[in-house]
Design a protein that fits this description.
By secondary structure, the protein is α/β, with parallel strands linked by helices. It is 47% helix and 17% strand. The strands form 2 sheets. Strands 3-4-5-2-1-7 form a 6-stranded mixed sheet.
Length: 254
Amino acid sequence: MAADLSRYDDCLRLLTALPERVPTLQVVVVNGSAVTGGWDEHSDLDVEAWCSGDAATTYDAVLALVRQELAVDHVWELPEATWPTGRQCFVHLQPDAADLGRPTRLLDVVVQTTPDRLTMDTRRHGVPLVLHDPDRLLVLEDDDEAEMEAQRRQAVAQTSARRQTAAWLVERAIARGDRAEATALHLRFAVEPLVRLLRIQHCPARHDFGLRYLRTDLPAGMAERVEAVLPGPDLVVRTRAAFAWQDEVLRELR
């Protein structure tokens, strides 16, 4: 079922018309949960655009028009070094984004320089809603499978090799009563590698998506099982359960 984007109609109209006012824009799409699933009343609208020439100049022009045409409350611009070939910002169209008593209106905008060949893997990012691509520069094509398989193999090998060291680090912090350190280490070495293994097993194309989208990407009930080993009371019980689950998945992946 297509996502209901109607609360962003004004934004979509502006985004569709942007290339007429910023001619360097070559491709403009909506992606994220609007096309991959999980869209709800608190989803932001993910917008990705590619341009000719200097991306920073086009980004500045786009943001200026967004500020001019929409009722912008505030903007968070990520540091320039975040994207080697572009810029990103979060445009808040209402105050107090954490107030979920009303539908969210927030744009996540990325502007990049168009590469020599522009591709998008629909297994990872869904089929984008294309707002502008007159020259059909965007090609829907899977990422290099050999490269992704190499990344997955390395992740499995590292998790297996690190297993005993990782458990020692968490258990030591717990034994010392260093709760903050133990919590951080538990997430880093027990939970996050476990989720990576589960993704490799059940959703290999999105193996590196971390703790997000678990209900979308993992089998029914598995997200709840992961949540049961997140930091909480009896951390030693939770961390031992997480490492035992790592062992189980590692055996299956071998």
